[in-house]
Design brief:
This protein is α/β, with parallel strands linked by helices and 670 residues long. It contains 21 helices and 24 strands. Helix 5 (133-150) links the parallel strand 3 (117-121) and strand 4. The radius of gyration is 29 Å and the shape is elongated. It binds zinc ion (ZN). Zinc ion (ZN) is lined by residues 67, 69, 121, 125, 158.
Length: 670
Amino acid sequence: MLRNKLYYAIKPVLPVPMRRGVRRWFAVRQRRKVGAIWPIFPGSETPPPGWPGWPEGKKFAFVLTHDVEGRGGLEKCRRLMELEMKWGFRSSFNFIPEGDYKVSKELRDHLVSSGFEVGVHDLYHDGKLYKSRAAFAASAAGINRYLRQWDAVGFRSAFMHHNLPWLHDLNISYDASTFDTDPFEPQPDSVRTIFPFWVPAPNQRGYVELPYTLPQDSTLFLILGETDGDIWRKKLDWIAEHGGMALIDSHPDYMDFSGGKSPLQEYPVSLYDEFLQYVGAKYKGLFWHVTPRDVAAWVRTHTPAAPLAHPPASAPLVVKGSGKKIWIDLDNTPHVPLFAPVVHELSRRGYEVVLTARDAFQVCELAAKKNLHCLKIGRHHGKNKFLKVAGLFYRAAQLAPVALREKPVIGLSHGSRSQIILCNLLGIPTILMADYEFAKYPPLMRPTWEMAPEVIPDAALSCPSDRIKKYPGIKEDIYVPDFRCDPNLPGELGLDPASIVAVVRPPATEAHYHNPEAEKLFARFMDRACSTEGVRVVLLPRNKKQGDAIRSSSPQWFAGQRTIIPKGAVDGLNLIWHSDLVVSGGGTMNREAAALRVPVYSVFRGKIGAVDLQLQQEGRLILVQTLEDVDRIALTRRARSSPDGLSSPPTLARVVDHIIDVVENCAAVS
Ligand SMILES: [Zn+2]
């Protein structure tokens, strides 16, 4: 919010084109980063539970709204009305009650008598509406007065600022200050649904929230510099396909009706005109077109027993204020599959989850594949010890705005030191999931709570016993039972079904626990596998740099395609399943293979943790310690039985129970 505060403090002294220039500068840079969540937010197309479909069996809803920002916009209202009526459309015009213009009763009456709607847009439109709870309550009285005078039932804040719980102060039947996804707005948290939803109040009154789901005209044409309506059309097609609500917010102020003077401040109205024509022609008879007040009335009356309250069950991230918020930081690749079912289960039980991800290894790519929506923050800082430690603190600082804005009640990770550092500084309790007791957590990086497999003794963990939670099995049992075999994978990787496939993960040369002996074991195995007839190696380097280094130091392993490095992120469990053996220098892949009952050899040469010792005792993991051990690894094909027989231990349920227990009962302990 600091950037916002600064912006609104200096905004009055900036001329309009310069203001827009500043926003444009940010937006163009931001656009490169937001491709995964804008203009479409994956998952936002899932209807809320009990969604009844649109009236009259229509496929989707099409709703037009306008905010009138200044005198220039006010003067263009009638022309805009005419343009819309030409195609048979009606819209709602939101006016600022106490801005730099006064909307006449005559214009309001003209709108309403022509089938349009009038709504209230903020009060002063100065960006300060939500400055404090008390200030909002005072403004609410003023807004309610205008709602009454204008006979309006709808509201939208200036700058799409929003705080849904406070809006219960207003006598509205709907609010339209949110959006399904719009990372370009000053308060970019989105509601991630293309459906209207009910915002319940303790006193049963409540209101309907109507997020806009098509990008604003100003964003597209003035800030991003788009020159056609392609994004509108594509998004509309997608909303229509999923039966959602296409709601647009456009501004007469920025529409040029008279032929181009100032491309920084106006765009040709033909862009809007053509879009209306497109919708009318392509979807004739298929959409429900009314003004927002009718949508709100319909949502309210058609869901009397079970209002369509947020959150939709499937959306992993939900609107503020609906429950306690849990922040999960994904800082390495294995955390993605591990936390995906945890996030899902927490959402199902009504908790909000905020996800951040470090831009390292393939974390973000894998998260997108799992439909996890995370904020990408920080990167990997390589091998240099000083840089690594500095990097932890630097990333902690980068995470600070998210923590301050989202105000989670707890931070959860599988070893994100940056998250723990920041939470410790901000007084937010943390839960660290640990499955290797020799990882080091110096004082500032110590978690409040620790969660670990039962096999690790309390004494080996860094928290006192009363802050330790234990779960049965190993952490891989949380997600491996959900494994679904993908029979196409070997073909996609170009693997011959007759060959013996060894999946190999080199030792983590950049990790704090690295031991150079592991590299010798790894090299010995590679030499052996690549000179044995019929063996193919699928090599999974930790990152591109490691892959390049191996390729250039040992080109012989890659001769004749004996070793391949898959392009892009591969589903690790499927790769393991389709292999005959796994040789790995690191923890997670070993245990995934063990959980899938695939022969697995560990060349890890650091201190062996309790989990691996247990797996070794059970005969599910073989610890390779000498070069002779490497030569004893059996290079043979294994029988691939069905993965369905894998048992499904109660690990996930227990882990989520523990998280909720800490959140509800113990989070205040510090
Ligand atoms: Zn406005």
